[in-house]
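// run 5 | inverse folding | seed 20
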């Protein structure tokens, strides 16, 4: 952009970043035409983009973790698709089996459903303190 001022360059750069972010979150302007929730969805590790778009639209990009107060978490930070019935237990990548959760709630849900014997192989227990003095120390200090 020869001769362009800083505002034009910055605006163009931000537009490119927003377009890339939308694509990463399956929010493209002209998606391929496919059924969003076919019951015969393929058994794969990937959720079809059309299904992910529908989940993100339905859940308005917010974490759907139910709070004790009756509301939902509502966080938009690091939202992830969560299989209500885990893939390891036969859950399919279909609209009615998916919801958006923020990363901490997604991990907590996995710990609750799959238990420590499975989850200890993949990540640490989200209920433990982040920092500890020694291995096995759960006092947080």
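// decoded
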């Amino acid at each position: 952009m020869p001769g362009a001022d800083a505002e034009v360059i910055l605006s163009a750069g931000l537009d490119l970043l927003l377009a890339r972010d939308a694509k990463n979150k399956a929010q493209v302007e002209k998606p391929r035409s496919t059924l969003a929730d076919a019951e015969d969805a393929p058994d794969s590790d990937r959720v079809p983009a059309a299904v992910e778009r529908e989940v993100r639209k339905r859940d308005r990009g917010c974490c759907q973790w139910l709070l004790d107060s009756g509301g939902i978490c509502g966080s938009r930070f690091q939202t992830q698709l969560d299989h209500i019935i885990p893939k390891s237990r036969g859950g399919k990548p279909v609209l009615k089996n998916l919801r958006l959760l923020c990363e901490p709630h997604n991990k907590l849900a996995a710990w609750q459903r799959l238990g420590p014997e499975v989850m200890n192989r993949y990540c640490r227990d989200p209920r433990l303190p982040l920092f500890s003095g020694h291995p096995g120390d759960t006092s947080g200090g």
